[in-house]
Design brief:
Elements (H helix, E strand, L loop, with lengths): L15 H11 L3 H5 L3 H49 L4 H40 L2 H4 L3 H26 L13 E2 L3 E2 L2 H24 L1
Antiparallel strand pairs: 1-2
């Protein structure tokens, strides 16, 4: 995910089609020009369009997927937290519900473990560099898309962190939440660390631009 282009750019030039077409039309070898197949132009254009669509959709699809996963984990955690506050159920029923939450959390982490790591890294690197685009982006569409991305990313962090915060302190020995590679859990402490990293790199980038 880190190698992908900025999400607010709708068109992603692969240069594959342009480079190949320039080679065929600009070469001094007349044999190449005369043997240039007519269908090749349409084929390379189709390849360029498909690659552009895939490049655009991949980061948005991953962000939307993790937002849905975080929201899907937050809803039962919120319900469980309300039950703990009300104290309407017996201890056995509460423990059974908590065990179900642990199973749900473990299953989600087995599937999305690596994706959460790439999401956190991509968020830090992307917004550290492109946060200035809110001011410098010449197009309103670019700012709108960047705002939508920021809202979605913020929602993912919020619901993932709330999933952990909604569980009472006595249950923290068995944390429920989205984990990344077994190295961290998406809770509020991680959110603060990510924000500190983003703004630190952002300030360094601004200072570097001022010196130039």
């Amino acid at each position: 995910m880190v190698a992908l282009p900025p999400k607010h750019k709708f068109l992603f030039a692969t240069k594959f089609y342009d480079s190949f077409a320039n080679y065929l039309t600009g070469t001094s070898n007349s044999a190449v020009e005369s043997n240039y197949p007519v269908y090749m132009d349409s084929f390379l254009g189709l390849v360029d369009i498909v690659s552009s669509i895939c490049t655009i959709r991949i980061p948005y699809s991953v962000d939307s997927l993790l937002f849905t996963v975080a929201l899907g984990l937050w809803v039962p955690c919120k319900y469980f937290s309300e039950i703990l506050e009300n104290g309407n159920l017996e201890v056995k029923d509460i423990l059974d519900m908590f065990e179900d939450l642990r199973v749900l959390s473990d299953l989600l982490n087995q599937v999305f473990n690596g994706l959460v790591v790439s999401f956190v890294l991509n968020t830090m690197l992307y917004y550290s560099i492109h946060l200035m685009d809110f001011v410098l982006a010449p197009s309103i569409i670019d700012r709108l898309v960047l705002t939508i991305c920021l809202v979605g990313t913020t929602g993912t962090f919020y619901f993932a962190a709330e999933s952990c915060a909604n569980i009472q302190q006595e249950l923290t020995a068995y944390p429920v939440g989205l984990c990344g590679g077994g190295m961290f859990t998406l809770d509020y402490s991680l959110v603060i660390s990510v924000l500190n990293t983003i703004f630190t790199i952002f300030i360094l980038c601004v200072q570097f631009q001022d010196k130039q």
